[in-house]
Amino acid sequence: MEPQKGNQSAAAQGRVALFAGSFDPFTTGHKSIVDRALGLFDTIVIGLGTNTSKTPWMPLEERIAAIRAVYADEPRVAVESFSGLASEFARQKGAHYLLRGVRTVADFEYERNMADANRLLTAGDLETILILSLPELAAVSSSLVRELARFGAPYRQFIP
After folding, report:
1. I need a labelling partner for 116 at 20 to 30 A (CA). Which of 19, 23, 100, 154 fits?
2. Residues 96-107: pLDDT tens digits?
């Protein structure tokens, strides 16, 4: 079974969660969320959405390849791109859970509002699961990595 190659439908794989984001880049904080959620779900689909309001730092294909490399030995993790609403992509993948990481109170407020909207959009068929970041990773974000890289500062310790 190799979900990232699409050989088996996610719905046939039990409890499926979608972890959606631009992951530009995928950080050690993102990896921590996925790794810890593997104990809760049978399959996690890491969905790289296209955000038209952002100019990407890394090309989509490179982000996908980098994340697939991180999870090359974990058949329960699939990595795919999508456009449109995460709730629609979740439905297509057979996911009934949205996995989200929370670093701050501001993140919580945003994620709560998105969870409410997604629940309404899907008539309650999509539940959001929030996982708190580990304290030592709370400051790690894709924005931080991009900023460090922009100024030539070391950033590799923040990406897997």
Report:
1. 23
2. 999 999 999 999
From the number of C-beta atoms within 10 Å of its C-beta (0-12, 13-18, 19+), residue 144 rates as middle
141 as an active site residue: the answer is: no
Q: Tell me if residue 103 is catalytic.
A: yes
Is 54 designated active site?
Answer: yes
Q: Is the pLDDT of residue 32 over 70?
A: yes
Q: Which of 36, 91, 103, 146 is catalytic?
A: 103
Q: Which of 5, 15, 54, 150 is catalytic?
A: 54
Domains in the chain with CATH codes: 3-155 (3.40.50.620)
**pTM assigned to the model:** 0.90
